[in-house]
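Page 47, continued from p. 46.
Same chain as before, 506 aa.
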Amino acid sequence: MAIHQIDSEYSPGRLSAPPVEKRRGRLKIYFGYADGVGKTCAMLHDAHEVRKDGIDVVAGYIEPHDWPETAALLEGLELLTPLEVSYKSAISKEFDLDRAIRRKPELILIDELAHTNAEGCRHKKRYQDVEELLCAGIDVYTTNNVQHIESLNDVVASITGIDVSERIPDSVFDSADQIELVDIEPDELIERLHKGNVYQERSARNLPTIFTREKLIALREIALRRAADQVNRISLQNCEQIQNGGSYANEHILVCLSSVPSDAKVIRTAARMADAFHGTFTALHVEMPEISAAANNQTQINEHLRLAEQLGAQIATVYGEDIPGQIAEYAKVSRVSKIVMGRSNHTNKWFSKPTLVDRLSTLAPNIDIYIIPDSQSSFHLGLPKYTKSVKFSLADSLKTIGIFAACMLIGLWFNSLGFSEANIITVYILGVLINSVVTRGQIYSVISSVVSVLVFDLIFTEPYLQFRVFSGGYPVTLLVMLVSAIITSTLTKRVKEQARQAAQKA
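Result:
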């Protein structure tokens, strides 16, 4: 078994130093590519070594493996009594956080960092328990496998065929003071499995599907690469020139979010890119009123925002209906070097609108664009499709009738004073514009435009009480009123929606 240490100004000697006032505890993660590589044994062995130096060590929670080697390493260590949690007529044993804080050892051992706590515990995840211990000034040794890192979830799942639900944010892994890679040859791990030294009951069933040599080699490579990235990150953090022209320091990865469920894969890919380039990472959401209004869309977007935040992204939201324009403008202002987005299923046909990528390439030609293929479409250009029927509002209907009645009375008054037809028609045009501002939806503006032209033609033009709307210049008048009403109502709707969104975000 090979053990490789990745240390950020950290050593067992420093761990042995007496705690200073209000110091934060140090986190050491024993990192492996699969179950059975020996993470827990390595952790227990190191605990005995530091205990020889007089360090107060407590085994906070060790998974009950029932192996002689593990049991032998537990001998001589103080074991913290687990917390028994009753849920749905079953009793589960969990790490007792309160007991550990009261005991307050110098070093505590906690197995399975990505574990999900049972209902009734203070925190949902075990890594949150560990964070509280660190804040209390207690050093922590813990274990974690490569498949439990959030940004690697999709990659590992594509290899093993299993989607692991217990995961830790990358920020937790990256914030560790020390990463110790526990590594053995895949053939040796397979031999352990055959002997029943990993899964006593499940080895024969799981070995053909999960623990094949090819899959273990692939998982091992991912773990080695992730550990190497941690070394590079530590080196760059210690480099004083990183902010003054370093090749990696200037990388800014932008991931574009939507409500498509498969965007989780896009976000994780962008996070891995940001990690590989050692750059900053931003998640951008272009909020469109028609799309964001749907509850299911907003729920999915919120999940993606939370995932991006867990992976260390800065969250940015812009408003508008021109998606590529908003993305390009934000990318230029924020000095984005690479844009990552999901593939759109939109295909170019004759006379079709350009795709999002085409628009972005034109608007931001100096920015690299990465398309993550997937079976679902992430972005669509053009106006959203409206599936709901037009709904009439009693309040808006009364407003339309009132404005039209006022215009008619003013028109009759102007006519009695001898005003020309051109002056009277402006009253109706003004009424249509006012109606488009005070009502919601374009339908009222369109109705107001058509009725105004018809009434004007019927009452104020000769021969009276006869329609001749399609003669003379009246078709042009009708067209101008319709276009003015639609443009005004559209702009008004956008301004109102943006004001509402800004108020909600405030």
